[in-house]
């Protein structure tokens, strides 16, 4: 094989490798969108042109948490001190919806506030892209991790602790972390990981992980709503999407729907409205 033929083959291999493992972005134009997904495998930020969120006015029954998160986020967007936030509680109660809705609201006021979603399994790559965010001081970044929790043997939490604690270098001044979780302390209620442990003090490992939640300055709790709040949510959705149905029938069907699901929450209300809108041939987007 000649040197010319070998060179062509090597070029083709290089092109294929570039497609599979593209060169990491050392810089990035954050004017492309107001929200991004972090792709850890390809080491790049993927723009999200339209965030899938519910208008903040339709989030009922969580007024106090809503107002606290709005104030905290606005402070941060304006360049003032703010706290990392942990939104914890029951499933389907509006935790992730609130984060996205609050960002959308504040972004309309201050378009330098960027939301970046980071999957839990990609937290170990924080050390890679934090310098990129630090090098963009004109923007303020909220890192958002949905459904955050850690299981036995999972050491990913150490990367997050380094971010929240700051380490010797300190967390970038223009970066804040918001997380949602079904667990208040981000760990299973029963700590079984210490069974058969060889540690001198088997409680120290559990204490180290539980202390992670203490790094969040703002804790917002979410709980299943009562019947009145559930119906208030349903009414608001029906009005927003112009669903023409008798009020008594609407509420009777909504209650029946929640009974079949065995729960009352914002998510259950939304699923009921999706079903109703489909039957009435109405769109909700």
Molecular structure report:
With 285 residues, the chain is an alpha/beta fold. It folds into two domains: 35-188 and 201-222, P-loop containing nucleotide triphosphate hydrolases (Rossmann fold, 3-Layer(aba) Sandwich), CATH 3.40.50; 227-279. The protein is 41% helix and 13% strand. The protein has nine helices and seven strands, in the order H-E-E-H-E-H-E-H-E-H-E-H-E-H-H-H. The protein has helices spanning 3-20, 63-77, 95-109, 126-134, 157-165, 203-210, 227-240, 247-261, 266-279, and strands at residues 35-39, 44-48, 85-89, 113-117, 140-145, 175-181, 218-222. A seven-stranded mixed beta sheet has the order 2-1-4-5-6-3-7. Helix 4 (126-134) links the parallel strand 4 (113-117) and strand 5 (140-145). Helix 7 packs across helix 8 and helix 7 (227-240) packs parallel to helix 9 (266-279). The longest helix is centred in the first third of the chain and has 18 residues, at 3-20. The chain is globular and about 80 Å long. The protein starts with a helix and ends in a 6-residue tail after the last helix. The relative contact order is 0.13.
* Name given to the CATH homologous superfamily of the largest domain: P-loop containing nucleotide triphosphate hydrolases
Average pLDDT, to the nearest integer? Answer: 84
Largest sheet: 7 strands, mixed
Helical segment count? 9
- What structural category characterises the helix and strand content? alpha/beta
CATH topology of the largest domain: Rossmann fold
């Amino acid at each position: 094989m000649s040197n010319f033929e070998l060179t062509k083959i090597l070029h083709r291999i290089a092109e294929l490798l570039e497609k599979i493992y593209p060169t990491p972005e050392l810089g990035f134009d954050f004017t492309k969108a107001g929200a991004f997904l972090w792709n850890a495998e390809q080491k790049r930020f993927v723009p999200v042109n339209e965030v899938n969120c519910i208008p903040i006015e339709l989030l009922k029954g969580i007024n106090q948490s809503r107002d606290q998160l709005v104030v905290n986020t606005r402070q941060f967007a304006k360049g003032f001190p703010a706290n990392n936030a942990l939104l914890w509680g029951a499933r389907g109660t509006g935790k992730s919806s609130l984060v996205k809705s609050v960002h959308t609201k504040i972004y309309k006021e201050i378009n330098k506030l960027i939301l970046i979603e980071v999957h839990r399994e990609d937290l170990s790559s924080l050390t890679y892209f934090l310098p990129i965010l630090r090098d963009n001081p004109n923007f303020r970044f909220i890192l958002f991790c949905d459904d955050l929790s850690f299981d036995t043997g999972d050491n990913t939490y150490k990367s997050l602790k380094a971010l929240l604690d700051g380490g010797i270098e300190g967390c970038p001044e223009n970066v804040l972390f918001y997380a949602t979780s079904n667990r208040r302390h981000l760990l299973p209620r029963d700590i079984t990981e210490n069974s058969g442990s060889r540690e001198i003090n088997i409680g120290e490992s559990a204490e180290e992980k539980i202390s992670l939640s203490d790094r969040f300055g703002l804790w917002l709790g979410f709980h299943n709503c009562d019947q009145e709040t559930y119906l208030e949510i349903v009414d608001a959705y029906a009005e927003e999407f112009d669903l023409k149905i008798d009020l008594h029938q609407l509420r009777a069907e909504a209650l029946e729907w929640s009974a079949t699901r065995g729960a009352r929450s914002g998510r259950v209300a939304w699923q009921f409205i999706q079903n109703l809108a489909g039957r009435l041939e109405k769109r909700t987007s």
